[in-house]
Amino acid sequence: MKRLICAVFGLVFAASVVAADPIYGLWQTIPDDNGNFGHIEVQDCDGTICGVLMKSFDTAGKSIESDNIGKRIIWNMKSKGDGKYGGGKIWSPDTDKTYASKLELVGDELKVSGCVFIVCRDGGTWTRVK
Length: 130
Description:
There is one protein chain. The chain starts with a helix and ends with a strand. It is mainly β. Strand 1 and strand 2 (37-45) form a beta hairpin. The radius of gyration is 17 Å and the shape is globular. It is built from 1 helix and 9 strands, in the order H-E-E-E-E-E-E-E-E-E. The relative contact order is 0.16. An 8-stranded antiparallel β-barrel has the order 1-2-3-5-6-7-8-9.
C-alpha cells in the first residue's frame, strides 16, 4: 500500500512537471520609452497565461521603486501551439496603454507585439532570467 501511494504521488508530480508551459518563468523586458525595464513573472492564472511585474530597473540596471510592482502586465494569453501565444492583453506602464497582444517563444527569447485599435507596435524581444 505504501508503494502504491508513493507511485501515485510520483505520477501526479511528474504530470504537473510535464504540463508546465515553457513560457512560464521570469522574463526581462526591453527598456521602455524612459529607459527603464522590468522582470515579469509569467505563470498560469486560472487556465490562461498571465504575467506580473516583479521588479523594476533604471537604465543602469539598478533596482528602482515602482507603484506598478505586483500589477498584471500580461493576462488572458493562451497557447496557440508551436511556441505562439495570443488572445490576451499586455499593459504598457510607461504609456498606460493596453494592447491586444501576441507572443512567440523561441528558445530563451520571447517576441512581443501588440495593437491598440489599428496602431500596432513591436514590443521587442524579452529574455529569460530564470
